[in-house]
Amino acid sequence: MSREQSLAEIFHEGTKYRDGGAFHAPDLAAQASPYKDFHSEQPIDLVPDLNFENFPLGPSSHQQPRDSSLLPPIVGRLSRLLFYTCGATGVRQSPEGVQLFRAAPSAGALYPTETYVVPGPGSGLEEGLYDYAVHRHQLVPVFEGELFEEIRQHCFSTPAFAKADALLILTGIYRRSSWRYHDRAYRRILLDTGHVLGNLRLAAESEGWRVAPTSAFEDGPLAQLLFLDPKEEGVLVVAPLVPETEVDAGGALLGPMRRSPISRGPISTGESLLHAVHRGSEIDRDDPVHSTGTLPWPPAEEEELRAPIPLGKTFDGLAGAFPETVVSRRSTRAFTGGVISRDALAKILDYGHRAASPGPVRLLQAPERIATHLVVQRITGLEPGVYRYLPDEHEILMVRPGDFHREMGHCALGQDLAANAAAVVVHTADLASAIDTYGDRAYRYLHLDAGVIGQYLNLAAARLGVGVSGIGGFFDDEVNTLLNLPATHAVLYLTVLGEPAPSHGAD
Ligand SMILES: Cc1cc2nc3c(=O)[nH]c(=O)nc-3n(C[C@H](O)[C@H](O)[C@H](O)COP(=O)(O)O)c2cc1C
User: Looking at domain 301-504, which of 3.40.50.720, 1.10.40.30, 3.40.50.410, 3.40.109.10 is its CATH number?
Assistant: First the structure.
C-alpha cells in the first residue's frame, strides 16, 4: 500500500533531472562567494604550523611573524587538520581571477561547506566560535562564549563530547550552490560535506585525534546558538575531536542514532523545496531514538543472481600517505576510454567501503541503508555489465551483462566522463524504507554517507594513479532503469573511475 509522500520524498521527486525536462539556467545574480570573510582584529594565522614550506596564499609574508609561544599547542594541530580536510590545495588563474581548489572536491567547485571550530574548555584557546578562512588559512574569531557545553546538549550529550579537545562544525551555505543548481543543490551540498568529513577523519588521525561525528542534533536551538540565518545556512555535521588515547581506553563515543519525524508538509507558501527538506528533516529533543535493525542486502529477490565473483585484492595502503595524497588529488576531467585493471578496481572498492566504516568510531550515519552498484565498462578480466557490490563479502554479483557505456554517458546528462569511464560506482538507497527508520532525516544521512564513501573512493583511486570524479548530475529514473532497480530506490551519487587523459589527469 503506498503511503503519502514525506517532504524528503517530495523533494527527491521534485529535484530529479528528467530527459527532455526543463533546463534551469544558473541564477547569476544570486551567485555567492565561497568565503564568509568575517572581520577580526585578531585572526589566528595558521600558516606557520603547516608541515611544509611556502604556502602560496598565506598572510605570513606580509605580516609580523607570529609569536608561537603565546598560542596553545592545539593551534598547530588544528592548522594541519583544517588544511588537509578542506584547505586550499590548488590555485588556478582564470580570466575571472584566481580560483582556489580545495582538499575535498566540490560539485561545480562551489564549496558550499563552511567549517567552524569550537575549542573545548581545556584547549587553551579562548572559548567561542571560530571560522576557518580557507583562502588565508586562518582561524577567525566570530564571537566569544562558552558554547561547548550548550552544543553538547543540543547533540544529545553523546559521550564523545566529554572527552573532546574541540568540535568542528560543518554547515551548508545554500546559495553558494543553489544559484547554479537550484533546489537540487541540497543534494550536492550534503555530498560535498560528506567528502569533507571523509578527509576530516583521516586528517584527524594524522594529528592523534579520532572524530566522532554526528549529524543528529536539535537543529533549531543549535542554529540559534550559532546565530545562523536558517534561510542561508544549516548545520550538517558536528564532529568532536577526541584524543586517540581516550578512544583506545574503550567505551562508546556516540549515542544511538536519532530519527526526525516523517514530515507530511505542506510546503509553506514561498518556501523552496531546498528549505522545506532541511526544515522537514529537523530533529527535536523529544523525537525518539532510532531502534536498530538492518536491512538484509541483497534483498531476497536477488538471490537468483549469478554466482558471486570474489574481488580478492584489498587495500590498506593510504593511512600514512593521506597528506600527500589529498594535497595532490584532483578530479579527472577526461578519460581516454582505456581500461583499468580488475585489481585496481577491487582495491578502490575495498578501501572506499571498508575503510569508511570500521573501528571504534562511527563515521557513516546509516551505512546499512546504502547499496552499491557497479557498471563495468572496461575492466580487464571482468565482463562488461551491471553488477551489485557487496562490501562485507568484497564480492560482485552480475545483474545484467552488456556494454552500457553509451547509456551510462546519457544517464550522466551526456557527460563524456561517464561514457569513457572504465567503471562507474553508483550508490543508491531504498528511500521509503530509510525514511521509515530515520524519518526525513534519512535524506541527510544517506547523502552525507554517500559523500564520505565517495571521498574514500577518490583517495584510493588517486593513490593508485586511477582517474576519478564524482558525478552529481544524472537523470535519476534512467539510472534506475539501467541498474534494474525498483523506482523506490533513490540514486544518491555516481563515482566514475578510469584512465586519465594525459592533458587532464591532474592539473
Ligand atoms: C558532489 C560532487 C558532484 C560532482 N559532480 C560532477 C559532475 O557531474 N561532473 C563533473 O565533471 N565533475 C563533478 N564533480 C567534480 C568537481 O567538478 C570537482 O570536484 C571540482 O571542480 C573541484 O576540483 P577538484 O576535485 O579537482 O579539486 C563533482 C564533485 C562532487 C564532490
Answer: 3.40.109.10
